[in-house]
Write a structure and sequence with these properties.
This protein is an alpha+beta fold and about 140 residues long. Helices cover about 30% and strands about 45% of the residues. The mean pLDDT is about 95. Keywords: ATP synthesis, Cell membrane, CF(1), Coiled coil, Hydrogen ion transport, Ion transport, Membrane, Transport. It comes from Lacticaseibacillus saniviri JCM 17471 = DSM 24301.
Length: about 140
Amino acid sequence: MAEETHLTVNIVTPDGLVYNHHATMVIVRSIDGDLGIMANHEPIVTPLQIGEVHVRRIDNPGHEDLIAVNGGFMEMSDNVASIVADSAERERDIDLSRAEAARQRAQQHLQEAQAQHDTDEAQRAQVALQRAINRIHVKTGK
């Protein structure tokens, strides 16, 4: 029996399917660091951090799709990498001006929470800031 040369990458959020393509490799940011998955990888389940997902599609070998993923987990089994995320946005769908505005709001909220010594609000603002920065990085490639 021949080994498969590609895997399927699915990204699902509470709003539905965000991404579904065949790939040679997917790279995710797990809580233990970056993880690259190729076809025929052993089954694995891993929680994800806020970060970029890189997908090397089989139909365009020199190109990587970038998706901003905000938490969740990935399961790899039978050459299907399924990512279930709180939210996810493809690079082409990110509105940079909205992401920049969200970053500014989060920074302001974080400063206010820190000034009031409100650790819960500061933590929420920090997560919002990470999400906005992640979206900006995916959109700009920086």
